[in-house]
Amino acid sequence: MLLMGNEAIVRGALEAGIRIAASYPGTPASEIGNTLAEVAKEMGIHFEWSTNEKVAFEVAYGASMCNQRGLVSMKHVGLNVALDIMEMAALRSVKGGLVFVSADDPSQHSSGQEQDQRWLAKQNCVPALEPSDPQDAKDFTVYAYELSEKYQLPVMLRTVTRVSHMRSNVKLGKLQKLEREAKFDFEQFSYVVAGFDRLFYGREREANEKIAKIKVEFDSSPLNKLAMTGKEKVGVIATGQTYNYVMDALVKLGAKDKVAVLKLGTSNPLPEGLITKLLKGVEKILVTEEPDPFVELHVKALAKDANPRVELYGRINGKLPGEGELMPLTVDGVIAEMLGEKLPANPRADVEREAKDMIFGRMLTVCAGCPHRPSIYALKRAVKAVKGDLHKIVMNGDIGCYGLAWAPPMSYEDTYFCMGASLGVSQGMSQVGVDTIAWIGDGTFFHAAIPALMNAVQTKTNIKVVVADNSVTAMTGFQPNPQSGKTATGEPTKSISIEAIAKAVGVEHIEVTDAYDTKATEAAFKRMLQTEGVAMVISRRICATEAIRKMRPKRPVPYVVDESKCVGCKLCLSTFGCPGLNFDEAKKKASIDPTICMGCGVCAQVCNIDCIHGRDE
Amino acid sequence: MKTIRVVIAGVGGQGTLLATRLIAETAIKQGLNVRIGETYGMAQRGGPVMGHIQIGEAYSPQIRPGEADALLGFEIAEATRRGVTYLKQGGLAIVNSKKMPPVEVISGMRKYPEEEELIRLLKRVSSRVAVFDATKLAEKAGDPIATNMVMLGALAVAGVLPFGEEEITATMKESIPARFLELNTKAFRLGAEAFRESK
To answer: Cα separation of A26 and A33, whole Å?
Structure first.
């Protein structure tokens, strides 16, 4: 069956008989939750898009203490949010198998950083498994549950974007329902029953002892495969997905019999016996992994005893780049070098350079009809009107589609860091006398902003908060959030109101506007900027892509430019810049691409000579 | 069987993913191995997207530079951008002439290159380039959203894949919801026709 890496993980968890799954969306992990949302009802399991990753982890851990298997998934930085409870689950132990996916993103395809979360597995005595493809992803997940229950530890399934989004044929196993009675284990988890001292102290030693046992078990685990005849002079430790690059390189170089390969599927703890065997047998060794030299550093330490003269190739000695994904050609080159060969230089360098000079980079931007574009447009105008200069105030953005406010032609957003940070950093700036706006989306507001908002009220900090509310978690694929009024599996539930929360925590100035009405929104922003204390505007309108999805198979009615009126001033392009707009260089007139326009009509409000109209106007 | 490699290049929202999946599912039904790698950026729309399909034996989800048997370019600038790197010498490029100007062009920072310039550059890698306006054909079929099926129809009759029109349309019948099938099949046929005429 054709499965994406993320779908294969779900399949593995269902074959292992999970009872519960929880996630917070984030690329490249989102399809795990999307798939669970589709199948949860049919499979009779609970799935939820939790408010944030910490809650998700806690939900699954709660079920684990009642002897049920659970799955938690998130993008790598989500694990930072869940770290508090992950560490506790490792120390206090689990009962029902608890597997969590950290979907890492080397080279930052869709992330602010490429943090390698294997260090957190090491730091917290958590086993980490690294699949190389969708088949591994399925098989490793099934095994992760056995491992988790055998050692009563949570297990990290660590993927990278190339595995999360890889699709290939997967051989399936049987789906399983465990029918275990849900029962809290007082002996294992209750301070009263088990005794405080026994539960609270000395757990690090216990965790270390577990890892020491697992290390031995991993030497003979099918997750690690050593292909070695003893005649090779060169060896490669190919971790996770990089195994694919190594095997392709060996096929290309015709060097399969000259290179010993350890396919490494367990990066914490490392199978030290297997690595030692390989180190002793070869003269040169390469470690391939992404993005940090995590395994390599440990291999270097092991080499001190096993074979101090072995020549170590990898990221530490600069034979591979120190960060980022590996590129197949880079791996080809370094293996060729180890074999004493040299690959020809790129014959396409010239034509590639010409293409690079000729073709734009295609910057990201929010979609045609996106409600964030008019919100930014109105905010910029309001700040100019009230403050005189955009640099009289710092615009602190946050994580989501609206984070693209920095991109031209809007070019209006000074900072963005991590979920919810806009509200916190704005307060620090304000406390030292620098005016600020926190620019945050609805999903991010629920995820991480509420404590910071309470902080601002309690400390009487003068901050302005704009909630760019498109009513879905759009960037990751339209997952519901607490205000959507529906659960992950589509059941109706209460819709939680942002303005009610703000009011409850003591924000006195709250206005809600329609993002498509630029005049009203601009006026609301002006009032907000002129208010002392914590002031909030919620600029609301459903995500354009979601709106089009709901309207299908109908299509939106596009707007048109009245060419007899257009003077070719490009105001709509240079100040608003919707991807549906274009400029006809021959006619010197603006135009609207009917295949892209979604009929929001905001550009008609931007045009100051009234030359853009709806089809029936 | 020799491994068949196809690179799909386009812009987010053009439906490259569905085209990729239909090829892959058809291959699996023929008992062939498939490996697909996809690169898509942060935004749902507007950013460059690229899919790598390999049918037959392959480890890496990424096709190595200069090894693609065919390039399916959903947007002309993206076609040249990826083609010059991935298309093998003498490989086949099927290119939608549709221009989707990015924000750099819309806001006046950059010019959109001329079609002739883009094609000239692509032809330095391979002279086998078929260019037509697939989006216009999709509109003719009923909705520009079906551009992906026009492109797929062209690839189906190009003789690159180890299967053809019939096998892919059979997969379409299984995978596409009934209410969209007519539109998609019509677009697919128009794409096949356009490729045959481009020769």
So the answer is: 10
| Cα atoms in the 13 Å half-sphere on the side-chain side of A253 | 27
| Nearest CB to A352; choose among B24, B60, B85 | B85
Q: Which of B47, B121, B180 sits opposite A553 (nearest CB)?
A: B180
Confidence of residue B13 (pLDDT cuts 50, 70, 90): confident
Q: How many CB atoms lie within 10 A of CB B89?
A: 11
Inter-chain residue contact B35 with A361, CB threshold 8 Å:
no
* Per-residue confidence band for B4, with pLDDT thresholds at 50, 70 and 90: very high
Residue A362 token pair: 């295609």
Total tally of structural domains belonging to chain B: 1
Encoded amino acid at A481, one letter: N
- CA gap B11, A173 in Å, rounded: 37
Eight-state DSSP code of residue A392: G
Identical topology for domains A225-338 and A372-550: yes
CATH number assigned to the domain covering A556-613: 3.30.70.20
Q: Read off the CATH number of the domain in which B42 is found.
A: 3.40.920.10
Q: In terms of C-beta density within 10 A (0-12 exposed, 13-18 middle, 19 or more buried), how is residue A254 classed?
A: exposed
Annotated domain spans of chain A: 2-218, 225-338, 372-550, 556-613
Contact B53, B45 (CB under 8 A): no
Return the structure tokens found at A437: 């706006």
- Domain span at residue B140 reads 4-198
Give burial (CB, 10 Å; 0-12/13-18/19+) of A406.
middle
Question: What would the CATH number be for the domain defined by A372-550?
Answer: 3.40.50.970
Residues of B in Cβ contact (< 8 Å) with A251:
59
Put simply, the answer to whether B124 touches A110 (Cβ < 8 Å) is no
CATH for A225-338 is 3.40.50.920
pLDDT band per the 50, 70, 90 thresholds, residue A615:
confident
Q: Is the pLDDT of residue A115 over 90?
A: yes
Chain B residues close to A545, C-beta within 8 Å: 13, 44-45
Q: Look up the CATH number of domain A2-218.
A: 3.40.50.970
How far does the CA of residue B38 sit from the closest CA of chain A (Å)?
A: 6
Least confident of A292-301, A435-444, A576-585: A576-585
Give the H or E element holding residue A6: helix A5-15
| B160 within 8 A of B92, measured Cβ to Cβ | yes
Please name the residue of chain B whose CA is at the shortest distance from the CA of residue A112: B42
Mutation target vs B (from A358, A370, A473; most B CBs, 10 A cutoff):
A358
Residues 12-51 of chain B with CB under 8 A from chain A are 13, 21, 24-25, 28, 33-48
Interchain CB distance below 8 Å, B108 and A574: yes
Of A162, A347, A348, the CB nearest to B37: A162
